[in-house]
Amino acid sequence: MLSPRLVKGGLVQVDPGSGAVRRVVMLQYNPDSVARTLKLAGADGGPEALRVGNPPTETLRIEVELDATDAMDKGAGAELGVHPMLAALEQLVHPSVGELRRRDALASSGAIEILPSQGPLTLFVWSAKRILPVQITELTVTEEAFDALLNPVRAKVSLGMRVLTAGDLGYDQRGGGIYLTYLETKAALSRQVADASLSSLGIGGVS
Questions:
Q1: What does DSSP assign to residue 82?
Q2: What distance in Å separates the CA atoms of residue 20 and residue 62, rounded to the nearest whole number?
Q3: Span 72-101, pLDDT tens digits
């Protein structure tokens, strides 16, 4: 019997308008865990407690491990350790040099930029059933071992993310649609759990 093909988690940057893929960063190893927290607005009770409000604020945290050992025979890994993999992750949160120079040129000319230009939309992909638009909120790198040229050969990256909702991105925008699809997938999964009977809880009614 064939084993199912192992899929990798990763981060994908797309154009927020066209959806064109700009960058795919695959995690070298799938993290052992994905910590998720859903913080509800207005969860302190009161007479409005049953009002349907906005979606909860969902945050994610993963711990990514990088190791150049597997790449030692593939060129870049032998020469640069995990430097390229670290750089690929860090590039997800840095504006490009071109963008920084453009802003500097505007400032030097006396122009005022009211709003920074729009960057790509980042998606956290954790299987086909979980594709989430996210904002990376924290990226902590711990480099643990180095080669003779001080290239890091092992590292751990703690990645914090906040899920962007359709309210954040716009219901008529591509990112908002991806978020709504995520909620619909979650709803479909929940329907696979049959309702239990009250008797299974040891009660005959709730009145």
A1: T
A2: 26
A3: 666 555 789 999 999 999 999 998 888 889
- pLDDT above 70 coverage of the chain, percent: 94
In a domain, 154, yes or no: yes
Rounded CA-CA distance 85/179 in Å is: 27
Q: Hey, how many other C-beta atoms are within 10 angstroms of the C-beta on 115? A: 5
Rounded-to-integer distance, Cα 61 and Cα 65, Å: 13
DSSP 108-170: HTT---SSPPP-PEEEEESSTT-EEEEEEEEEEEEEEEE-TT--EEEEEEEEEEEEPPHHHH-
Which pair of structure tokens corresponds to residue 57? Answer: 């604020």
Q: Which amino acid is at 30?
A: N
Helix (H, G, I), strand (E, B) or coil at 16: coil
Q: What range does the domain containing 22 cover?
A: 10-41+53-94+121-191
Question: How much is the pTM?
Answer: 0.87
Q: What is the largest CA-CA distance in the chain?
A: 75
Domain contains 107? no
In a domain, 4, yes or no: no
The answer to whether residue 183 sits within a structural domain is yes
CA distances (Å), 9 to each of 64, 128, 170, 200, in order?
Answer: 10, 10, 26, 38
User: How many distinct structural domains can be found in the chain?
Assistant: 1
Would you tell me how many other CB atoms lie within 10 Å of the CB of residue 3?
5
- DSSP β-bridge partners for residue 70: none
